[in-house]
Write a structure and sequence with these properties.
The complex is a heterodimer of chains A (116) and B (115). Chain A has strands spanning 4-7, 10-13, 19-25, 32-38, 45-51, 57-58, 67-73, 76-81, 90-97, 105-107, 111-115. Chain A is mainly beta and 116 residues long. In chain A, strand 4 and strand 5 (45-51) form a beta hairpin. Helix content of chain B is 0%, strand content 57%. Chain B has strands at residues 4-6, 11-14, 19-25, 32-38, 45-50, 54-58, 61-66, 71-76, 85-94, 101-105, 109-114. In chain B, a hairpin with a 4-residue loop joins strand 7 and strand 8. Classes of the chains: A mainly beta (116), B mainly beta (115). Chain A binds chain B through residues 32, 34, 36, 42-46, 49, 57, 91, 93, 95, 99-100, 102, 104-105, 107-110, 112, and chain B through 31-32, 34, 41-46, 49, 51, 88, 92, 95, 97-98, 100-108.
Chain lengths: 116, 115
């Protein structure tokens, strides 16, 4: 099946710094990628949809200036958490696929972010 | 009303029994439905997808879909301790804007299989 690679797997940073997370589709072209956030013992919450070559679509309540998404190519989307705070500590997961054709989404391995 | 709703559990089932997981969704126009399994600290792993009303079987897993009732379920037969995990129901939903789609997850059901 398709593979989605996410990097880094975990990151620890100081409050106020920015963190970039990369999501790559390894064997298919992904015009759309999705970014989810998961707090402990909670479900996956969709943060934004990353669209290749255009602006991302953010879900209600997600600050677009804080969570910067760039989807510059058909195989790479990045999520940058700017001016991170301890409340941003979470498990961030990207996924890619072709939902419009009813196909499955493939998930990256996730990034555990801890902000001190 | 939540877009996708599951019984949060926890659900405890003896080894060898049938585990039954349920999910309801709000968007009547949804066409694609998925069950994922997630172990602690890991990404979700796709178990089943279902698109048509009725049952779909894959090994010990059976997904059931009833679009009229906006209900989808997952049955696990001959439950094994290794089936212990959180099970996530996901529904492909239409966006209001641009006609695009998004995958929305339920809150997950924590399942424990007792030896």
């Amino acid at each position: 099946g398709a593979v989605v690679s996410q990097h880094p797997s975990w990151v620890i940073c100081k409050s106020g710094t920015s963190v970039k997370i990369e999501c790559r589709s390894l064997d298919f072209q992904a015009t759309t990628m999705f970014w989810y956030r998961q707090f402990p013992k909670q479900s996956l919450m969709l943060m934004a949809t990353s669209n290749e070559g255009s602006k991302a679509t953010y879900e209600q309540g997600v600050e677009k200036d804080k969570f910067l998404i760039n989807h510059a190519s058909l195989t790479l989307s990045t999520l940058t958490v700017t001016s991170a705070h301890p409340e941003d500590s979470s498990f961030y997961i990207c996924s890619a696929g072709r939902l419009l054709q009813g196909e499955k989404l493939f998930f990256g391995s996730g990034t555990q972010l801890s902000v001190l | 009303q939540k877009e996708v709703e599951q019984n949060s559990g926890p659900l405890s089932v003896p080894e060898g029994a049938i585990a039954s997981l349920n999910c309801t969704y709000s968007d009547r126009g949804s066409q694609s439905f998925f069950w994922y399994r997630q172990y602690s600290g890991k990404s979700p792993e796709l178990i089943m997808s279902i698109y048509s009303n009725g049952d779909k079987e894959d090994g010990r897993f059976t997904a059931q879909l009833n679009k009229a009732s906006q209900y989808v379920s997952l049955l696990i037969r001959d439950s094994q301790p290794s089936d212990s995990a959180t099970y996530l129901c996901a529904v492909n939903m239409r966006r209001v804007v641009r006609g695009a789609q998004k995958l929305v997850f339920g809150q997950g059901t924590r399942l424990t299989i007792n030896p």
